[in-house]
């Protein structure tokens, strides 16, 4: 019985071998694919980019020039899930590995060439910017080579707990007149700042008094004050309208200031055509409006950007935390 079983298995394998050989002979007689460019010779190469069949180097160059083909596979080409094969998975995996390798090499080269450097903003400017942020103003510090950075004299008074701003007043004249005020406390009202320029006994130089004659005959209530919305495009400038009875702190709250504030002073008769927007109620709204304006109203990008929470004021006792021994939780204890 064992012998008969082995003989039957051998005959079965022989019949299967004959059948496979017949299939191979049938496949061997398939029609050869001709070149898609010259249509004369048999195609030998397949372009990874457009899958064109070519026969020689001349046909390869001809198809690249004719179809503007790069000859490279499109790694971002869409492929249906039903057509997705193991080869496509290997290609995607190789693409991710190449991207990781390039990012790692760039990171290493950056440290080698010392491209990653610490912030060059001086410590006192970082503190002033932080104090301004605690008072609701996002102060942006420019690079040291900029004139606006060099001319900025803003500071913070620790005793009075006030920001001392460098204030720039731009009067809307045929030739705009710019007057600067140094170390102005943010508790000062805009009316008090402007009143001395509208006094006939103004102590400024003769050229300034001559240019301000058109304003000195006007009442302060007939003026309109504006501050530029930052950052803004050169062809789409917007302004916030300020109340003349508000203080500098109230006027700058929830706004972005580049180095120091600049206030535009003009007559109400000319202020009707000024492009203004409502005042923001929080810094989160300022960031969202800024991103929406720069992205053309893409709300999805706005939602993905986190908002940095406001840090506690260093002089606020309610923000300090104490442990059982009465030590401040926000203090750094060194040397233990």
UniProtKB/TrEMBL annotation:
Residues 1-15 have a biased composition (Basic and acidic residues). Keywords: Metal-binding, Phosphoprotein, Zinc, Zinc-finger. GO terms for cellular component: nucleus; pre-snoRNP complex. Belongs to the BCD1 family. Residues 1-25, 316-336 are annotated as: Disordered. GO terms for biological process: box C/D snoRNP assembly; maturation of LSU-rRNA from tricistronic rRNA transcript (SSU-rRNA, 5.8S rRNA, LSU-rRNA); snoRNA localization. One of its GO terms (molecular function) is zinc ion binding. This is HIT-type domain-containing protein. Residues 35-69 form the HIT-type domain. Required for box C/D snoRNAs accumulation involved in snoRNA processing, snoRNA transport to the nucleolus and ribosome biogenesis.
């Amino acid at each position: 019985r064992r012998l008969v079983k082995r003989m039957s298995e051998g005959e079965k394998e022989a019949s299967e071998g004959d059948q496979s050989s017949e299939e191979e002979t049938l496949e061997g007689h398939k029609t050869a694919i001709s070149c898609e460019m010259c249509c004369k010779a048999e195609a030998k190469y397949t372009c990874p980019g457009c899958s064109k069949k070519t026969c020689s180097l001349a046909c390869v160059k001809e198809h690249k020039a004719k179809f503007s083909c790069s000859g490279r596979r499109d790694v971002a080409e869409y492929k249906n899930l039903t057509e997705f094969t193991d080869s496509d998975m290997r290609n995607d995996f190789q693409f991710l590995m190449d991207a990781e390798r390039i990012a790692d090499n760039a990171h290493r080269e950056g440290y080698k060439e010392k491209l990653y450097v610490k912030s060059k903003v001086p410590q006192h400017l970082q503190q002033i910017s932080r104090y301004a942020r605690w008072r609701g103003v996002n102060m942006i510090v420019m690079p040291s080579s900029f004139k606006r950075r060099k001319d900025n004299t803003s500071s913070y008074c620790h005793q009075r707990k006030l920001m001392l701003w460098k204030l720039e007043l731009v009067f809307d004249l045929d030739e705009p007149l710019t007057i600067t005020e140094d170390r102005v406390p943010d508790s000062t009202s805009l009316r008090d700042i402007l009143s001395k320029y509208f006094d006939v006994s103004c102590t400024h130089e003769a050229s300034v008094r001559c240019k301000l004659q058109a304003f000195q005959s006007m009442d302060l209530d007939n003026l309109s004050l504006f501050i530029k919305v930052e950052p803004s495009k050169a062809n789409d400038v917007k302004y916030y309208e300020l109340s003349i009875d508000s203080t500098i702190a109230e006027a700058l709250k929830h706004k972005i200031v580049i180095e120091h504030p600049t206030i535009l002073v003009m007559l109400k008769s000319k202020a009707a055509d000024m492009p203004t927007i409502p005042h923001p109620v929080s810094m989160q709204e300022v960031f969202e409006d800024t991103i929406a304006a720069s992205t053309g109203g893409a709300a999805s990008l706005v939602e993905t950007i986190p908002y940095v929470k406001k840090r506690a004021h260093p002089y606020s006792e309610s923000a300090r935390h104490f442990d059982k021994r009465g030590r401040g939780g926000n203090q750094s204890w060194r040397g233990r």
